Predict the 3D structure of the following.
Amino acid sequence: MTAAIIDGKAFAAKVRAQVAEHVARLKDESGIQPGLAVVLVGEDPASQVYVSSKGKQTIEVGMASFEHKLPADTSETDLLALIDRLNRDPAVHGILVQLPLPSHLNSELVINSIEPSKDVDGFHISNVGLLGTGQKSMVPCTPLGCLMMLRDHHGKLAGMNAVVVGRSNIVGKPMAQLLLGDSCTVTIAHSRTRDLAAVCRGADILVAAVGRPEMLTGDYVKPGATVIDVGINRIERNGKMKLVGDVEYASAVAVAGAVTPVPGGVGPMTIACLLANTLTACCRAHGLPEPAGLTA
Ligand code: NDP
């Protein structure tokens, strides 16, 4: 038996099409155009690539894109002043500050200065608290994308055993909260977990968000389980650079029921969910119904 491949690239295209359709209807019926502001401080090459593809996809779905590229030595006062302007700008429904920030800037302070209803990354402490208490919040994009793929594949997730490997604030913890919200029985594993393979083999849903290339082999996978590989690791193999996940694909695919590939799995869903969150924020700001199927 080989696992079904969960095609994140195709799924993300479907999400973007749904967002685009909703945006077009909003413009037609209410004259409202959702707007996303992305703030980049400095010249980190990976961040520049992310920001430009976010801007491009924002425009493709019919939203307004506002890019703010600031020099690496921007002061905290200037950055906070820009965020304050964006918070008050009615044309901006979503604000994203690209991380990591240069080390002289306090990331927590900066993120927590974003108006929570515009915090489309879902990293503001208010949104973390709302998610943790099961209330309506802005949900971090990567775990939201994972949840959408799981719901699409399984329908209802209630009662399933889910193991999330990784406890970061941007992936592991919110992923666990979302799975709990869908009534899974959730275990969060991390670097101090004892007998990780045995813990993982108890999972009907295994989410790997570790940042270690191909660490979870087929031995960590229960036969028939669904494996969501969040990892993005660049490694050199046979003299070539290659992108691999946190799961050893070849051995996992022989055991699992379904697997997300890397690339083409979770990755493309992240920006699609950013656009979905911006649309949701816009609908909430105007007291309009939220787009169905695009929120947690
Ligand atoms: P972090 O480095 O913040 O967290 C990694 C987590 O993995 C930590 O909780 C750590 O445990 C745990 N861990 C590390 N080593 C082990 C081990 N040997 N056994 C068990 N657990 C371990 O990473 P992120 O959550 O930010 O990212 C995880 C991966 O997901 C990365 O590859 C990243 O590139 C990718 N990513 C992909 C995104 C996408 O769009 N697809 C978006 C965001 C991230 P401890 O807390 O004990 O140290």
Notes: The chain is about 40% helix and 15% strand. The radius of gyration is 19 Å. The pocket of NDP is lined by residues 142, 165-168, 170-172, 189-193, 196, 209-212, 230-233, 246, 266-267, 270 (CB under 6 Å).
